[in-house]
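Backbone shape codes:
===
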Amino acid sequence: MDSNSNLNPPPPTYKDYYKILQLDYDATDHNIRLNYRKLALKWHPDKHKGDAAATSIFQEINEAYSVLSDPDKRLEYDLNGNYEIDKYTLREYLSRFKGMILTCNGLGMTQTSKCLAFLVDEN
């Protein structure tokens, strides 16, 4: 084993929670809940007895939901997410930007009037 291999650990892998839950980046809370329930039922370990891959997928679904369903965690995730060009198409970037800024959902603002006031103040 090379002694230098421990000096440069691989970068942490990024999980795209929106893709895990099969959501657009501007998904509403309602859509997040619906997709979570659908996928959790599909991949529940009780339906895939002994299948470690299904259990792993189920755990990722739960992890993604725990972040995207909480406005504070979602805001933090959206603001600190991975924006590597080679991982997303232009359409996905635009959708993500729209979800974060134009709808204010990614900013943790759920009330339309509050969101519009924020956007007007910023301009």
